[in-house]
Amino acid sequence: MTKKVKLALLAATMLASSGAAMAQDTTLTIESWRNDDLTIWQDKLIPAFEAAHPGIKVKFNPTAPTEYNAVLNSKLEAGSAGDLITCRPFDASLSLYEKGYLSAVQDLEGMKNFSDVAKSGWSTDDGSATFCVPMASVIHGFIYNADALAELGVEPPKTNEEFFAALDKIKEEGTYVPMAMGTNDQWEAATMGYQNVGPNYWKGEEGRNALIKGEQKLTDDAWVEPFRQLAKWKDYLGDGFEAQTYPDSQNLFTLGRAAIFPAGSWEISVFNEQADFKMGAFAPPVQNAGDECYISDHVDIAMGMNANGKNLEAAKTFLNWVGSAEFATLYANALPGFFSLSSHDVKMEDPLAQEFVSWRGTCKSTIRSTYQILSRGTPNLENETWNASANVIKGTETPEAAAERLQKGLASWYDPQK
Amino acid sequence: MAVEQTTKPPIRWHIAVFLAPAVLVYTAVMILPLFSTLQLSLFSDINNSQVFVGLGNFRTLFGDPRWAEQFWNALGNNVWFFVIHMLVQNPIGILLAAILSSPRLRMRAFYRTAIFIPTILSFVIAGFAWKLILSPLWGVAPNLLDLVGLKSLFQPWLGKEAYALTTLALISVWQFVGIPMMLIYAALLSIPDELLEAAECDGITGMAQFWKIKLPLVLPAIGIISILTFVGNFNAFDLIYSTQGALAGPDFSTDILGTFMYRTFFGFQLQLGDPNLGAAIATAMFVIILIGVSIYLFGIQRRLRRYQF
């Protein structure tokens, strides 16, 4: 008797809930680590999509960047993840695809608008399958306080010599901290230090591919020299930079107390909001005037769909839209500093963003050297590089010793480097 | 029915009923996860499926020089973290309790509350507050030192390998010194006055009274505090994570078992998580704590002399 009642109740609730779901619009949930972008998604991107696609509602559901990977993995395992997944580049997403959590998307209409390089961050090693639609890349360089440099009569440097001459002059004058960076959080030292100035020495893609093939070693001069440059930075950082965090550095710069900020282009929107002085940017300095220049133009963010999601059709519609010219323009302008990877001709309004993206025309682009394939094993090359770069800047490890240690770690699991 | 009840002693169902909620909840949230962690550490992820590898994860952890180095580094740091607590937190706790129990002290309730309050703060609040206080850019510490002309003594304490761990241990001491203080204060209050009067009649007063009468009487409480400190320190994670992040900088000098386990289990940045190896570390932590607690229970607690009043 009671069993029957229970069954009936159960059936009733299931019918009721499925009935309700059918009457509603389809709702897509986006998983993301970009909690900074919440308002942009809610006010600009989602309304634009919903206006064009009635019947589909979209919810942006971000987590803190440092927790994203762990949270996403647990949600996918538990089957509670959203329909759309913001993809980290390379192995983090590749492993999700291999575990069957992400669907292949290479056949989508919107994917036609992306080059192979743009897709490289989210494709299998042989390039046969792509599992996320590329959204944006970030470019490294140096942002400077234009008012401060003008006041001191310092020109934005082009070569290494000019770069250190400029830093010396700012330091001598004493009003400004020459460069805003700390080593407390470690990643800035690697990302905005090593990966920023490095491509000029290892010649971008040429060196990066040679490293993957095992033709070059991290102990070669081209890979040690960036560390030697970093070792010189120590004298130009603020007092107690060892305990200075990333937000500390950002504030130091936007409050106008520092002259130069080793940056990624993602800083642009934050700095535009907070700094009330004129800003400019210069590309990582080359060794000699007239040398070919290389920049880190790193594939950073993409979007894929949850293979076990309930609304696959709607998710496909959304991903096609992510590949469209409309999305590229909206996104690049809402978030200056995140540059579209698509082949659409995207017009950007922000002068600082234009400066960054103009380097694509004059310099050769590459991606961060440690991201593709080389960070697959233990010890993890990227995480080791954070630690090594921070040590080199603090002066607790020599550039040669740091390179030696990285090479040894890489060779311990990566066959081409053995 | 009634006849049966009079002949047999009734089964005392109420005991089971009253125990059930606690037993069920404790089993669900503590015992099952503990055993599934132990089980997880015996498996490994090979081609996306869980394969039984016996003690393979432990061989990696202790045999592979890279993992072993990190493990021993974390364990060493953890021991230092514990040593600082034992050397600083507990003596200060005892001292504060002794001062608080002095009958001549005024505003006792205020001091007691003020010293205890940090204990109820969240780790994250304590961590961030101290990080700001010690910040070389906006911190209070460099400015205060400057006021008395000692700016040259200031160091970015949280950023130097030599000081970071000790600084963090002292922050933790600041936060938790209220607990030993309260426990020992309570123990001191429970010493009967007759005993102290008898001591006075025998000419034992002042400091001598503390060393010869009071301290031996509160030793069991100090033992309990030591073991609580031990378990707390070897399970610590929050303070380091909230101030230094999962990489426990600078250069892993503040890496303790908790952060090492977190990094391995959940992964960090490009390093993917390895739940199996993480579980192996968690198991090692469990064993270390188990050994420590056993040494205390069987080696020390039995030898402590207790006094009946």
UniProtKB/TrEMBL annotation, chain A:
Cross-referenced Pfam families, in alphabetical order?
Answer: SBP_bac_8
Q: Residues of the signal sequence?
A: 1-23
Extract the InterPro entries matched here.
Bact_solute-bd_prot1 (IPR050490), SBP (IPR006059), SBP_1_CS (IPR006061)
Keywords on record: Periplasm, Signal, Sugar transport, Transport
Q: What biological process terms from GO does the record include?
A: transmembrane transport
The source's superkingdom equals Bacteria
Q: Name one GO cellular component term.
A: periplasmic space
Compartment(s): Periplasm
Principal subcellular localisation of the protein: periplasm
UniProt similarity note: Belongs to the bacterial solute-binding protein 1 family.
Q: What does this protein do?
A: Part of a binding-protein-dependent transport system for a sugar.
Question: What protein does this entry describe?
Answer: Probable sugar-binding periplasmic protein
* Annotated organism of origin: Nitratireductor pacificus pht-3B
